[in-house]
Design a protein that fits this description.
single chain, 381 residues, alpha/beta, Rossmann fold, two-stranded antiparallel sheet, 11 helices
Length: 381
């Protein structure tokens, strides 16, 4: 999942009191005053980053002022475009994107503009910075607060997920390979969730409670809170409760706001917990199913990642559900530390006592789910 998309980005990198104010009806990129204002804001932003993010590890810090301003000017582009193209308060079409797809779209534009061969060359701190600057530019150009813009993006993402997941339930899997969805994050992950429930549904004996680990912005719990009961390929799934945990989550306020708007559409609340998978799991209550959707690759090393999986396996009454990217090298832009391949997933499943690897029993586009990065293991009792 896209990490670190939170209000903290804006508060950390750029103090709110330094936001510039422009009149969308008269502002032009070419106007000297606007350019001067943006230059000044850029200097403040760079000073803030340099002061707050000093690190002895050069790979962990944006140290070049030139590199910073390349990010800065490209990140301002969407907001400046709004000022030019949309003279009224009308919202631009691209704000209907889910936030992950929107961010990736802008990053690929950045890569093309600056001749960056692969986005893997960027570090996740740069991704955070880029997203924060871009959000600041867009929110100001639209005359919105940063918090309102973030909620708008989150709500867009949630609506996209609802639509994609509902379409899969009604029509089944599309007839193209999963990797074709990777440039549209919402569609891609809903296919992941759908496949997980396809593998689980025939084995469930009644209502289940679920726990989403490493939930971050909690789009999966938000989605499932709208689907307390659903039928997938003829098999009924019923949820009793939903728990979401992380060491630093950012979705709780958004989910509460969505539920408050339309309580009749969200029968299940989402319960949040602060749980560090690398620490003491005493606060991790027993539950039926535990989900690790694109989480294990973010843990520091194989030893700690496998340890967390084994410990949580003991907390699960029915089983665990894992999805990870298949990579040859860790993707630094997404803050990955370890890689997974098919052999490693099957070997890790052997460490789960009494596990039945049901991801080997279900296919998507002619390929076993395990071969696509899933580890869906159920207890044999």
């Amino acid at each position: 999942m896209v990490r670190h998309l939170a209000r903290k980005l804006f508060q950390r990198f750029i103090p709110t009191k330094t936001f510039w104010r422009v009149n969308p009806k008269t502002s032009k990129i070419s106007q000297a005053k606007d350019r001067q204002d943006l230059e000044m804001l850029g200097e403040v932003a760079y000073s803030t980053v340099a002061q707050n993010d000093a690190s002895p590890d050069p790979e962990q810090t944006i140290v070049s002022k030139n590199d910073f301003f390349e990010f800065y000017w490209h990140a301002q582009a969407p907001g400046l475009l709004i000022q030019q193209k949309y003279p009224s308060s009308a919202e631009p079409e691209y704000l209907s994107f889910d936030q992950g797809s929107y961010l990736i779209t802008k990053l690929y534009e950045f890569g093309k503009a600056h001749n960056i061969a692969g986005l893997n060359t960027l570090h996740f701190k740069q991704l955070d910075l880029f997203w924060g600057l871009m959000g600041q530019a867009n929110s100001n150009a639209l005359g919105m607060t940063v918090n309102n813009w973030l909620f708008k993006q989150y709500f867009n993402s949630h609506l996209q997920y609802l639509g994609h997941f509902n379409q899969l339930i009604e029509n089944g899997l599309p007839n193209y390979a999963p990797e074709q969805d990777q440039d549209r994050i919402g569609r891609y992950f809903c296919r992941v969730y759908y496949n997980e429930w396809r593998a689980l549904a025939p084995h469930l004996k009644g209502p289940v409670d679920i726990h989403d680990c490493g939930t971050n912005i909690a789009l999966f719990p938000a989605l499932m809170s709208a689907f307390p009961t659903f039928t997938i390929e003829g098999e009924k799934v019923e949820l009793k409760s939903i728990t979401a945990s992380d060491i630093d989550w950012t979705g709780e306020d958004y989910i509460k706001a969505i539920h408050k708007r339309q309580p009749e559409n969200y029968p299940l609340p989402v319960h949040f917990k602060n749980i560090d998978l690398l620490g003491d799991l005493n606060e991790f209550n027993k539950c039926d199913l535990v989900f690790f959707n694109d989480v294990l690759e973010h843990l520091p090393n194989d030893e700690q990642s496998l340890k967390a999986l084994k410990e949580v396996w003991e907390k699960a009454r029915v089983g665990v559900v894992v999805h990870v990217p298949i990579e040859e090298e860790p993707s630094t832009i997404w803050d990955h530390f370890i890689t997974f391949n098919v052999d490693k997933l099957r070997e890790w499943s052997s460490h789960l006592e009494g596990a039945r690897l049901v991801s080997d029993e279900v296919e998507d586009h002619g390929e076993k789910l395990t071969d696509q990065g899933y580890l869906i293991a159920l207890k044999s009792h």
